[in-house]
Design a protein that fits this description.
single chain; alpha+beta; 6-stranded antiparallel sheet; 5-stranded antiparallel sheet; about 70% helix
Length: about 775
């Protein structure tokens, strides 16, 4: 039985945010920042504008967590002061106020991130970037370095916010921009912190080799920074990076390496006297021991961490270690039952585990942490199940599953449903057991699909990163060649001035050197050609892999043959991967088929198609939406919620039909967005009704219309995208257009479906001729 794990290393959790916060604190506050009451007293006294702004921002930062709304008001006051009319003021004061404005915007961006309003946070960050750039180009030499540091910190914060929005590629891009700014300043400590952030980002994406690469780079940079410094210097960044490296080894089950780096981090914590970080590392070490099966040793480390957290009154740390101890106690109980066949009533490990879970649950309830509450409820239910206390187990598992649904914790909900299934099964209630088993399987499939989509995103990011590296390498080598060529030409000019007596010698040397340069250039060009070819091959391989993933999500022949008596599918992507797709699902007593054209084609279109397929499946199989028009309404809402928050109008044109067979007829319900289905009946062609709006953000927000029709024997229903009709070709290089396409379909209506497909393919190839295909092409024909 799977445990709902609490072993989320806090070093892992804080490494991304914690390091960036550390950078922000170093910029916003000095180590001698006054207490809140002292700042308030200073604020009450008369101060110049720039000093008042500094105090307002310092106070806002101190209040950022416990009184976030107040902190935001203080930040806005600072921003208002910094944007006063600066006409007539001297250059030095203007620069100071511009810097204050940039700081205010930067701080407000982070405060709104803490508040949970990510779009507003990004807006303030982008305004801060503009101010930093203006300050950097103001001509004030003293401000150039400060502006560069400000740019790096704002980019770093934007990276955190984008990752919180699951916009991983944008987040990673911001981290690399922050790194570039840090390298301009030469501040090794800040460079190391940014490298550590990038490593943490790759950790979250599951790219563990790159996570190690950047964390080790960060560790080396910290070593360089700390050389010659006293042992009691601030080493927070170094110990967090050591913990991050331990996390990467731990998640890959390299427990010995994980312990090695956790213990190194623990030694630094003790040296620095950092009790909270000491407790976190003790908890991490406990995690490794319990994962190795050494529960007793793991519990001893949890107890040490718990004692420290209780002294610090850190409820989050207390609850986390109680939950991990509970899991370890129950694991010991499992071992006792399995090894010595101890009766449940005599096993004291389960009660100890329950006690820990119940204490952790009370703390999570006081903190309002729904995630922690759901996990503890589920684990209490699991333990009661192990004790065969089925009715009590059901109460906790039901609460845990419901709590998980409220905050969309699908993994916790899935594991709770699995326990409910096994509990009802143990009680002999087969109907209830089957209900929860089906929910468990549905959640499991959903999580698998999400993991697969995340893997596609990770490969895309790796491709972008490797492409940038290759481009930079080629550019650097080309610059070296140009520099070498310039140097040689300069030497030739100098030699030519020497005189007539050396002309022959100089000319001979010149010819020799030119020969050498040509040979060198030839070698460099061949090397560059090899690099470009290798990079192109890797890119094509990655896209082909994406094609296999996309094709696995299309409607299968077996499903189509099962529900359609006679049909053909013409699917011809413009590139390797496609923005067009056709999707099918069987649900309850009906069959659904969609032919869709996502925004764009190639790689961007393919990503949109995967997203659209996921939302279609989610609408039918998770949300139990059965009407085609309501399905499209749901998909449109999900697209706007997911990718259109900042004005993008990405989505798809779509025809979605629902087929239900009766004795002699086929009942069809459909909804159509921009593309219309075509009905061929008794030698006539009818273009059916459609809604002139996309599934996505557009000018119209009306609901999609539900249409119905009955098909009888001999009817043909055609579903297509705009790719065929929009193809340029023919003697004048014009579009094929819809009317000739429909006439072609009507003329060949009574041929077997496969022959119809061959006619369409032949006509398309003849029309296109030597021209390139302009769009993805999808045509599906169904004969009743």
């Amino acid at each position: 039985m799977t445990w709902i794990s609490f072993k989320i290393s806090l070093s892992s959790r804080i490494k991304k945010v914690g390091c960036v916060l550390g950078l922000c604190i170093s910029f916003l506050l000095s180590a001698q920042t006054p207490a809140i009451d002292s700042l308030q007293k200073v604020l009450a006294s008369p101060l110049p504008d720039t000093s008042r702004i500094n105090v307002l921002l310092d106070l806002a930062w101190k209040l950022r967590s416990q009184k976030n709304d107040t902190a935001i008001l203080l930040g806005k006051q600072a921003l208002e002061l910094s944007t006063k009319n600066k006409s007539g003021k001297d250059r030095e004061l203007k620069s100071a106020l511009l810097k204050s404005k940039a700081r205010s915007l930067h701080t407000l961006g982070w405060l709104y991130y803490i508040h949970g309003n990510h779009s507003v946070a990004l807006s303030f960050c982008n305004q801060a970037l503009i101010c930093w750039e203006e300050l950097k180009g103001s001509g004030d030499i003293r401000m150039v370095r400060k502006a560069t540091i400000g740019l790096s910190k704002t980019f770093g914060n934007m990276g955190v916010i984008y990752f919180a929005q699951s916009k991983d590629s944008l987040g990673l891009d911001c981290y690399f921009k922050a790194l570039k700014m840090k390298e301009e300043t030469g501040d090794k400590k800040d460079i190391a912190a940014t490298l550590s952030n990038i490593g943490s980002a790759y950790y979250d994406l599951g790219d563990y080799p790159r996570a190690l690469e950047f964390n080790f780079k960060a560790l080396k940079m910290y070593d360089d920074f700390l050389k010659g410094k006293a042992m009691d210097s601030d080493r927070t960044g170094e110990l967090i990076t050591l913990g991050n490296i331990g996390n990467v080894y731990w998640i890959q089950h390299d427990f010995e390496k994980g312990k090695e780096y956790y213990f190194k981090a623990l030694d630094l914590c003790k040296l620095a006297g950092d009790k909270r970080e000491t407790a976190r590392q003790l908890g991490n070490i406990g995690n490794v021991y319990t994962d190795e099966g050494n529960n007793a040793t793991g519990i001893s480390y949890y107890l040490q961490a718990l004692t420290i957290f209780e002294g610090l009154k850190d409820n989050g740390g207390i609850a986390r270690n109680l939950a991990n101890m509970g899991a370890a106690y129950v694991n010991e109980g499992d071992s006792a039952v399995n090894k010595d066949n101890v009766l449940f009533a005599k096993n004291d490990r389960y009660p100890k585990g329950l006690e820990c879970f119940e204490r952790a649950l009370k703390i999570k309830e006081s903190l309002g942490d729904k995630n922690g509450m759901a996990n503890n409820l589920a684990n209490i239910g699991m333990t009661l199940f192990k004790e065969k206390k089925y009715p009590e187990a059901l109460v906790y598992e039901m609460r845990g599953a419901e709590m998980a649904r409220t905050y969309k914790g699908k993994n916790t909900e899935m594991q709770a449903e699995e326990i409910l299934y096994k509990t009802f099964k143990g009680m002999g209630k087969t109907n209830e057991a089957l209900t929860h088993y089906e929910k468990y399987i549905l959640l499991k499939d959903t999580l698998f699909a999400e993991a697969r989509q995340k893997e596609v995103v990770r490969k895309e990011m790796n491709y972008i990163y490797e492409k940038k590296e290759a481009e930079l390498k080629i550019k650097s080598e080309a610059q070296e060649v140009v520099a070498a060529e310039g140097k040689k030409r300069q030497q030739f000019v100098i030699y030519g001035v020497v005189g007539v007596l050396l002309i022959v010698i100089v000319f001979s040397v010149f010819l020799f050197r030119r020969f050498k340069i040509t040979q060198k250039q030839k070698r460099i060009i061949e090397q560059q050609k090899h690099i470009v070819e290798e990079s192109q091959r890797e890119i094509i391989d990655s896209i082909n892999y994406a094609k296999r993933i996309q094709y696995s999500l299309l409607a299968t022949d077996s499903m189509l043959k099962k529900h359609l008596p006679d049909y053909f599918v013409l699917f011809s992507p413009k590139d390797i991967v496609s923005g067009d797709f056709y999707w099918a699902a069987e649900y309850k007593d009906s069959f659904y088929l969609a032919v869709c054209d996502s925004t764009g084609h190639g790689v961007p279109g393919a990503f949109m198609s995967i997203l659209n397929i996921g939302f279609l499946s989610e609408a039918v199989k998770e949300k139990d939406i059965t009407k085609p028009n309501e399905i499209l309404n749901y998909v449109r809402a999900r697209l706007i919620e997911t990718i259109s928050k900042e004005g993008q109008q990405d989505g798809m044109d779509c025809i979605l039909i629902k087929i239900k067979r009766t004795e002699n007829l086929v009942d069809v319900e459909y909804a159509a967005a921009n593309n219309e289905p075509v009905l061929l009946r008794d030698g006539r062609m009818n273009e059916l009704a459609k809604d002139k709006m996309p599934v996505g953000k557009g000018e119209k927000t009306d609901g999609f219309t539900l249409h119905t029709l009955q098909l009888r024997k001999g009817d043909s229903l055609i579903l297509y995208t705009d790719g065929y009709a929009d193809q340029f070709g023919g003697p004048k290089g014009k579009k094929f257009k819809y009317k000739p396409l429909n006439e072609l379909l009507l003329a060949n209506q009574y041929k077997p479906c496969q022959e119809q497909k061959e006619v369409l393919v032949s006509a398309f190839v003849d029309w296109k001729g030597e021209l390139q295909q302009v769009d993805d092409v999808t045509v599906i024909g169904i004969r009743i």
